[in-house]
Amino acid sequence: MAEITIRKRPRTEAVVTQRKFFKKTARGKVIKVLRERYLRDDVACGIQSCGLCAHEADILLPSSGSLEHASFPNGHFVLPDTNVFLSQMDLMESPLFRPPIVLLQTVIEEVRHRSLPLYNRLKALVKADDKKIWVFYNEYCSDTAVIREEGESPNDRNDRGCIRKATAWYNNHVSLARPPVRGQTRQPLPTVVLLTDDVANRQKGEREGLACMSVRKYVEGLKESSQLLDLLSAAGSDTIEPTQAVAARQALYPDYLPTATLLAGIKSGHLHQGHFNANQYNYLEGSVSVPAFEKPVLLIGREHMNRAVQGDIVAVEVFDEKDWKAPADEVVDQEATLKNDDADDSEEEGEDDEALAERKVLQTELAKQATSSKQPTGRVVGIIKRNWRSYVCHIDSTSLTSTNPTSLSQQTVFATPVSRLLPRIRLRTRQAPALIGQKILVTIDRWERTSRYPEGHFVRALGKVQSKEAEQESLLLEFDVPYRPFGKAILDCLPPEGDSWVVPPKSSTDLNWRDREDLRDLTICSIDPPGCQDIDDALHARRLPNGNIEAGVHIADVSHFVLPDTPMDHEAAARGTTVYLVDKRIDMLPALLGTNLCSLRPHVERLAFSVIWELSPEAEIVNVRFTKSVIASKSAFTYEEAQIRKDDPKQTDEITESIRLLNDLARKLKAGRMAAGALNLASPEVKIQLDSSESSDPIDVEQKELRETNSLVEEFMLLANISVARKIQETFPQTAVLRRHLPPPRANFEKLQDILKKRKGMTLDVSSSGALAASLDQCVDPTEPAFNTLVRIMATRCMLSAEYFCSGSVARDTFGHYGLASPIYTHFTSPIRRYADVLAHRQLAAAIGYTPLHASLHSKSHVERVLEVVNKRHRMAQMASRASVEFYVGLALKARSEKETVIEDAFVIRTFRNGLGVFVSRLGIEGLVTFKREIQFDADNYTITIPSGGQDVTISVFDKVKVLIQVEQDKNTQRGRVVMSLSHPIDSRSM
After folding, report:
1. Which residue, 449, 467, 503, is CA-closest to 250?
2. Whole-number pLDDT of residue 244
3. What is the pLDDT of residue 973?
4. How far apart are CA 579 and CA 591, in angstroms?
5. What is the pLDDT of residue 735?
């Protein structure tokens, strides 16, 4: 029997092993907290062939470290401090940066407290196959654990006691592990280098005899320094050479207020908090929506936007009402206004041409403002939370001082983001000539009040502009879509049988059949778009002996395979949704589940979660039940195939009768929804015709055709979602995962109401969803069938976005879905492609007693955090899908314009002082028609008048025009862009 020795720790050691502090509870009570940490003598160093450490894990660090640095010919290891990971993560992630790294536990904890996104990137970095990183638990090692001294800040304690002490311990440990051998020359020892940009920390380390280096100096000694130096964050580059006239800089923007002042001002109502939104038509204007005002707070000019970037959460001060202004009615393009700006000189304004041009534009706008409705106007006084990330850009070729491709001299250049909502970014790079004509990724690091533009650094090149691969990747990056392949830990969660997994034979002892109904004999079928592989849902209907109808919706039982708190569950939560691009799908779940084991394919037994109603012949619900089930779909139809089958009187088989029965019920369900005030809105949906599945070259664009069978599926999915929402909210009133659509503020519709009244004599009643639905039905132009669809598209844009929420987090009277006119709603019917549906499945399974609810779904704060991510991913996925369609529409137009002149019908949807906004319904795209010559603009009546050979031509909003569409290559970016000009009633190309 092993001998066990119990040792009592000396009282003197308690100072190191115990942490004592006082905490105030929510009720105001002060309690003392004592935390104990257990120190060990056997925490391994992670260096291969170390005779002092017993290593059980895979050894990551080579015994000699890295020999690739000029300053350390005998080898070295790198030990970075916290700020290196906070400011230089792009460098650390680069495949060219390969030194063996010692990562301290203290550093990991500090990063976690300072930035959760960076902490997640750090965790992924530790697991990366191409990196050599050893996590050293210095807080639990008896030789490196320290306590905070009296009067010492936590940061100083970490620098002194953890980072510098751990570096010294490592160097000493390496020396002890390789003692000199008598009679032999001692081999040179590798050095452990403390990597820090903190000057004070470096100086203290050097005094203690440690090898210390700044990140820049370290990178300069590496072989790939010319490429790696571009990755350095400007925020951490304290040795960058100043640009011209830097000593004479003057402030271009006001200082931000201190954080405490901002928070106090927001609390008192003197300041207001909201998200900054840039104006896509005018780069000198932005807005912030705040609860205190119906209309957004208008920000006019750079100084009042005060360095805010799209998506930042800002604090704004609202001016007195006498100083309120109206939004600009002119298109102001950043590239045209600032085409001669110098990247080196843009840090000081003085009275340069660009500053004067911007001032002239603003003065002209203010002078021309007529009787347009004014709105709250203010200025940004502070940033609550930055939304900075990596942006897809291209190098502005006009900003280069040298285009010599062999030059490695550092240049300051402009990177122009793909998004019109973002400012130019100044960056210093040695690769500028080689990056011309490339899509690149750039990260913003800082925006000083003395610089007109934010400063950033180059991350990596994505590929040649307009190549499909580069455009597709840039699109995913631009909308923050996770697209990395599924890792081993995630794939290990899949059934070990892989493709050969099948539903086992029915047995009372088999867990797969536990509490499941056998519905394999039902006539079930699925109806989906063409080429659909991830079939989430299937339906059935049959008449009952009592004259009623049984209808069922059967949803893939994804929660059977995706268990809570597993790597696959965490990945699905992080992705939030499947993203559909024109020629690609970025899956939320591995393909084995999404397109095989969970997909309700025909003639295959599958696990399902079924919602089954008994309905009266008038489609009124008699009762509903929920059950886990096993089904075998009898057929998989496209919408067109199901429609043809339904309409063919010769077809009388069981499946066809089921479709007809479902369709009859769906019509009645829709009529009931519309009577309750549901909205029939519209969005510009088009379908890209591809040359072939292999080439994915677009050959044409056509509008999507909606059939009766589309509505059939939609109505039963809505019914299932509403029924499930009621059930989970009854069972879990505090944590039910629901979806709501808040009523839009009436101010959102004011402009559309005014345009309809003045241009068409029509009234839009927005007092309720029912009144809006009725008045939209009346917006009909007998001479133009597409007019009603256009009004519905414009009305949709006045709406707020629907969102997921936790039932215990908002008031009960805000649960409703405005567009569907339903008091409660959730998403349950697409768990293969939406994570919110997976959560609803778990809650419904617990509600019917099938399985206990996981502890995380009892936590309101956890559900709120997950849904915040899911809401963001859902919005980004929608925008990525739209951008993908726009890109392929551009390619199709380019191919078409090379063969013929492209002229399309378009509706005018907006008028500007110098142009028109038009919507081309057949292509589903919007465009700008701009005029260089002076035109007459009537803002109050939404018209422009163009002089033409002695006869004026007047064009108004809602007018139908013809536009000439061309795809021109931008001389600067080499990227094709859609350019529109009027063809009728006037040719605007010469204007």
Report:
1. 449
2. 42
3. 52
4. 13
5. 95
Q: Which residue type is seen at 327?
A: P
Instruction: For residue 493, give the amino acid letter.
Output: C
pTM of the model: 0.83
User: What span, in angstroms and rounded, lies between the C-alpha atoms of 384 and 273?
Assistant: 8
Dihedral (Cα; 146, 151, 156, 161), 10-degree rounding: -10
Query: E strands of 648-730, at which residues?
Result: 686-690, 698-703
Separation of alpha carbons 536 and 855, rounded Å = 27
Q: Locate 466 and state its tokens.
A: 């307009």
Q: Of 465, 309, 341, which Cα lies nearest the Cα of 414?
A: 341
Contact 232, 219 (CB under 8 A): yes
Written as six digits, the tokens of 878 are 């929608």
pLDDT of residue 247: 41
Kindly give the parts of the chain with pLDDT less than 50: 15, 236-248, 348-350, 370-371
The tokens 């006084």 sit on which residue?
Answer: 381
Q: Is 313 helix (H, G, I), strand (E, B) or coil?
A: strand
The amino acid at residue 543 is R
Peptide bond into 985 cis (omega under 30): yes
Hey, how many other C-beta atoms are within 10 angstroms of the C-beta on 792? Answer: 17
**CA–CA separation, 699 and 687 (whole Å):** 11
DSSP H helical segments within 797-908, as ranges? 835-847, 860-897
> DSSP letters of 775-833?
HHHH--BTTBTTHHHHHHHHHHTTSPPPEEEEGGGS-GGG--BTTTTBS-----S-TTT
Q: Given the DSSP bridges, would you call strands 579-580 and 585-586 parallel, antiparallel or unpaired?
A: antiparallel
Q: Are 303 and 256 in contact (CB under 8 A)?
A: no
Tokens of 745: 């503020």
Crossing angle (nearest 10°) for helices 860-897 and 835-847: 140
Asked whether the beta carbons of 294 and 434 are under 8 A apart, the reply is no
In the sheet that 101-104 helps form, which strands lie side by side, from edge to edge?
A: 133-136, 101-104, 76-80, 191-195, 211-213
Distance of alpha carbon 95 from alpha carbon 386, whole angstroms: 28
**pLDDT at residue 361, as a whole number:** 55
Q: What is the dihedral of CA 644, 647, 653, 655, to 10 degrees?
A: 60
Q: Give residue 844's pLDDT.
A: 97
Cβ atoms within 10 Å of 273's Cβ, excluding its own: 20
Q: Which residues contact 333 (CB under 8 A, 6 or more apart)?
A: 283
- What is the model's pLDDT at position 348? 47
Contacts of 58 (CB under 8 A, 6+ apart): none
Q: Which helix (H) or strand (E) holds 36?
A: strand 30-36
Query: Which amino acid makes up residue 735?
Result: T
- Classified as helix, coil or strand, 610 is strand
Give the separation between CA 677 and CA 820, rounded to whole angstroms: 8
For position 605, what pLDDT does the model report? 94
Is there a contact between 961 and 908 (Cβ–Cβ < 8 Å)? Answer: yes
How many whole angstroms separate alpha carbon 514 and alpha carbon 508? 7
Count Cα atoms within 13 angstroms, Cβ side, for 598: 28
Q: Supply 461's token pair.
A: 């090149």
Name the amino acid, one letter, at 208. E
Tokens of 233: 């964050």
Q: Which residues contact 898 (CB under 8 A, 6 or more apart)?
A: none
Measured from the Cβ of residue 417, the count of other Cβ atoms closer than 10 Å reads 19
| Contact assessment for residue 830 and residue 861, using Cβ atoms and an 8 Å cutoff | no
What are the C-alpha distances in Å from 269 to residues 264, 315, 888? 9, 11, 47
- Single out the residue of 61, 290, 313, 347 nearest to residue 192, CA to CA: 61
List the Cα angle 542/548/552 in 5-degree steps: 45
Where do the DSSP E strands lie in 721-858? 737-740, 803-806
What is the chain's percent helix, strand, coil content, to nearest 5? 35, 25, 40
Pick left, alpha or beta for residue 860 (phi over 0 → left; psi -120 to 50 → alpha; otherwise beta): alpha
